[in-house]
Amino acid sequence: MLALRLTFTLLLVRLCGARPSSHARRDLRVHAYRNVVPAGFADVGPASPDQTLTLRLALAQSDPKGLIDALYRVSDPASPTYRHWLSKEQVAQFVAPKAEAAEAVNAWLEENGLSATSSSAAGDWISFQVPVNKANELFGAEYNVYVHQESGTQVVRTLSYSLPASLQPHIDLVHPTISFPDIKLESSTTQAKRFIDDVPERLIKPAHANSTVCSQGTTPACVQELYNIPAAPVRNNVTLGVSVFYGNEPHYAYLTTFLENYRTDVDASKTNYTFVGWDGGVDTQNPFATAEGDLDIQYTVGVATGAYVTSYQEGGNVTDGVSGFLDEALFLNALDDSELPQVLSTSYAHFENNWDFDVTDKICQAYAQLGARGSTLVFATGDAGAGCDFITNTTDFGPNFPASCPYITAVGGTSGYYPEVGWTGSSGGFSNYFARPWYQDTAVSAYLDKISGTDPNAGRYNASGRGFPDLALKADNYTVYDAGYWLHVFGTSASCPVFASMITLLNDRLISAGKPTVGFLNPWLYSEGSKVFTDVTAGSSSIRCSDDDPLRVLNATEGWDPVTGLGTPDFDRLLDAFGLCSSVSN
Ligand SMILES: *[C@@H]1O[C@H](CO)[C@@H](O)[C@H](O)[C@H]1NC(C)=O
Ligand SMILES: *[C@@H]1O[C@H](CO)[C@@H](O)[C@H](O)[C@H]1NC(C)=O
Ligand SMILES: *[C@@H]1O[C@H](CO)[C@@H](O)[C@H](O)[C@H]1NC(C)=O
Ligand SMILES: *[C@@H]1O[C@H](CO)[C@@H](O)[C@H](O)[C@H]1NC(C)=O
Ligand SMILES: *[C@@H]1O[C@H](CO)[C@@H](O)[C@H](O)[C@H]1NC(C)=O
Ligand SMILES: *[C@@H]1O[C@H](CO)[C@@H](O)[C@H](O)[C@H]1NC(C)=O
Ligand SMILES: *[C@@H]1O[C@H](CO)[C@@H](O)[C@H](O)[C@H]1NC(C)=O
Ligand SMILES: *[C@@H]1O[C@H](CO)[C@@H](O)[C@H](O)[C@H]1NC(C)=O
After folding, report:
1. Which residue, judged by its Cα, is nearest atom 11 of ligand 3?
2. For 499-535, what is each residue's pLDDT tens digit?
3. For residue 283, with 0-12 CB atoms within 10 Å meaning exposed, 13-18 middle and 19 or more buried, which class applies?
4. Superfamily of segment(s) 187-585
5. 465: which strand partners?
6. How far is the CA of 301 from the centre of ligand 7 (A)?
C-alpha cells in the first residue's frame, strides 16, 4: 500500500463563527481556517494579485441526508428495497443544488463579474476563475504562495476564508483554500525501489502454481485455495474497476507474463484489462512505474477470471488539491449507469486529518452516491497499524481515509495460512471525522466493552468513530511481476483487489441466478455477513512512530477487531449467504 505519509504538523480546526480575518468585510463570516502552515511548507509571501485561481465551490445540496437514507434503504438486508439500486438521475435528485442556493450564488458571482461552470454531474460543484486579489476580497482570504521545501512544489493557499453571511447556508465549502495537497514526496522510481527493498528475495525462477500452494509465496492459486475462490471464468460481463493514482500504472506485458506463469489454466493472449483515463490520464506504459499498479491489475485480472477489468488512471490535470480522490469520485459519479463499475478496488490511503473535514466529508458522500447506484467500493486500509498522528505529534493514533469513510468497505490484512493471523502492518482503528455508523454498533461496541478497563491504548483514539477495517485477507508475500523482476509484495494493497475480485465473481453468480449484484456491503456484512466470515483471533498490528514513541499494538481478538475486522471471507459461504447453491459448478 502506498499510503501517503505526509509530514503535516498543524492544527486543523473546524470553524463555528468567530475569528474574523483582517480583510473581512462587515458581512463576511469566517467559514474555516487553519492555525499554522502545514509542516514541510514555507510561506514565501502573497500570491501575485493578478494570478488566476480556479476555485471550486460546493453548493448546498437538495437533500444530503436523504441520499444517505436512500443508500441504507438499498443496502440494509432488512429493507424491503434491499439491492434495488438507484439510477444516476435518482441520486442527482438528492445531491443537485437547492434551487435557491444555485440562484443566490450565481447572482453573487454575476454581481462580481464572474461566471461559473458546473463541474459535477448533478451540478452541486461549480468552478470559476478569479484573480488572486479578487478572491482575497470576496472570501476575506489571504492567498499566499507556499513552497513545499523538499519537492519545490508551489501551491497558492489561504489559511482562512469567509463567506458573506447571506450565502453561508448556500455554500458548503470553497476549495482549494485551507486544504494543502499531498505532495509526491517520492518519485515513482524511488517508490519502486522501496517496494524492491521490502521484498525478502527476488524470485528468479517463478514457482509454479501447483507446487505446494502458499508455501511458494502468495499467488492466485494460493488465494483460490484459502478462500475457495473458483478458477472457472465468469459467464456474464461483470465489471471490476481498479483506481490508479500517482502514475502507478499497470502494464499489459507484465500482466501477460504473470498469467503465463501463475494462471496456466487461462489463455493469457486473450486476457487483458481496459484503460480509462480521468483528468487527462494517458496510457504511457511507463516501464518505471511502481509495482502498485501491476499488483492491483495482476490480482484482479488474475483472480476474477474473465471479468471486465478497467484501470481508471489519473492524468496530469489533477487540480483538486487532494491528490485526485475528489476528481476520481466526481468522474465516476458522472458515468452513466451502464458504465459504472459494479466493483471498484482502491489500494490507496492517506492520513485522515491532513485534509479539511469539509472536503473529506464531500469525498465520502460521493462514495455514498456510487454505493446507492449499486457499486461496491473496496479500499485498502493502509500498512501502518494504528497509524501516527502527524498533526499533534502526540501518541494519538492516526486513522486513514478513505478507509474511515462509513460508506465504503475497508480491507485490512492477515499473514500466514492455516490459520491466518493479524498482519503486523494492517491499518485499523477509529475515525476522528466520521461517527460510528449504526450497522457497526453491535460488533464494535462488543470489542470496546471487551477491552474496556484493560486497554493499554485507552485515550489514544476516538472510540465513538467509525471502526475499521471491516474484514481482512492475506497481505503477505504476494508474487508480482514488474519490470523484469518477480517481486514479493506485502500490504493491504494486495488484500483489497483479491476481495474485490471475490465480490465480482459473486456478482457473476447472482446475475446468472437472476438476482441483483451485491452493492454497498457493510449493513449486510455486520448482520448476516458476520456469520460467514472466518474470525481471525490471533496476531496483532504494531507500529512505532518515533524513537521515543511507545509501540502501538492492536490485537486481533474474537469478533470484530481493528486489525482484521470481522475476519476473512470464504466464497462458498458467501454464495450460501446470498441464497446461491455453492455446489453448482460454473
Ligand atoms: C513533530 O515531530 C517532528 C519529528 O520529531 C518534528 O520535526 C516536528 O517539529 C514536530 N511537530 C510538532 C507540531 O510538534
Ligand atoms: C504442475 O505444473 C507443471 C508446470 O506447469 C505441469 O507440467 C504439471 O502438469 C503440473 N501438475 C499438475 C498435477 O497440475
Ligand atoms: C515468501 O515466499 C517464499 C517462496 O516464494 C518463501 O521462501 C518465503 O518464506 C515466504 N516469506 C514469507 C514471509 O512468507
Ligand atoms: C491488451 O491491450 C493493449 C491495449 O489495447 C494491447 O496493447 C495489448 O497487446 C493487449 N494484450 C493482450 C494480451 O491482449
Ligand atoms: C489538461 O487540460 C487542458 C485544458 O483542458 C488541456 O489543454 C490539456 O491537454 C490537458 N492535459 C492533459 C495531460 O490532459
Ligand atoms: C462489458 O461491459 C463493458 C462496460 O460496460 C463494456 O464496455 C463492454 O463492451 C462489455 N463487453 C461485452 C462483451 O459486452
Ligand atoms: C470523535 O468522533 C466524533 C464522532 O465522529 C466527533 O464528533 C469528534 O469530534 C471526535 N473527537 C475528536 C477529538 O476527534
Ligand atoms: C495484546 O495482547 C497482549 C498479549 O496477550 C497483551 O499483553 C496486550 O495488553 C494486548 N494489547 C491490547 C491493546 O489489547
Report:
1. 477
2. 999 999 999 999 999 999 999 999 999 999 999 999 9
3. middle
4. Peptidase S8/S53 domain (3.40.50.200)
5. 435
6. 39
How many other C-beta atoms can be found within 10 angstroms of the C-beta atom of residue 464? 14
Q: Which of 76, 172, 249, 296 is catalytic?
A: 296
- When pLDDT is averaged across residues 215-236 and rounded to a whole number, the result is 93
| Shortest-distance ligand to the CA of residue 236 | 6
Indicate if ligand 4 lies below 6 Å from the C-beta of 267.
no
Distant-in-sequence, close-in-space partners of 87: CB < 8 Å, separation ≥ 6: 337, 373
pLDDT in tens, 477-491: 999 998 888 888 899
Annotated binding residue 561: yes
**In this structure, which amino acid lies at residue 439?**
Y
Read off the amino acid at residue 437: P
- Whether 103 is catalytic: no
From the list 142, 292, 396, 508, the catalytic residue is: 292
**Cα gap 308→328, rounded to integer Å:** 19
Q: Give me 168's grid cell.
A: 453561508
Residue with CA nearest ligand 8 atom 6: 555
Residue whose CA is closest, atom 1 of ligand 8? Answer: 555
Contact 527, 78 (CB under 8 A): yes
pLDDT recorded at residue 179 = 87
Q: Is 559 annotated as a binding residue?
A: yes
Please report, for the chain, the start and end positions of each structural domain, with discontinuous segments joined by +. 3-61+96-180, 187-585
Residue nearest (by alpha carbon) to ligand 8 atom 5: 555
Among 493, 495, 530, 540, the one annotated catalytic: 493
Q: What is the pTM of this model?
A: 0.90
| Inter-axis angle of helices 252-262 and 291-301, nearest 10 | 50
Cβ proximity of 433 and 358 under 8 Å: no
- Whether 315 lines ligand 5, by a CB cut-off of 6 Å, is yes
Whether residue 502 contacts residue 572, with contact meaning beta carbons closer than 8 Å, is answered with no
If you search the block for the grid coordinates 486529518, which residue do you land on? Answer: 353
Query: What is the predicted pLDDT for the residue at 184?
Result: 52
> From CA 111, how far away is CA 100, in angstroms rounded?
16
Catalytic residue check, 292 = yes
**Three-class SS of 319-376:** CCCCCCHHHHHHHHHHCCCCCCCCEEEECCCEEHHHCCHHHHHHHHHHHHHHHHCCCE
List pocket residues of ligand 3, CB cut-off 6 Å: 200, 203, 207, 216-217, 476-477, 488
- pLDDT band of residue 391 (cuts 50, 70, 90) is low
Q: Is 465 in the pocket of ligand 7 (CB under 6 A)?
A: yes
Among all bound ligands, the one having the nearest atom to the CA of 211 is 2
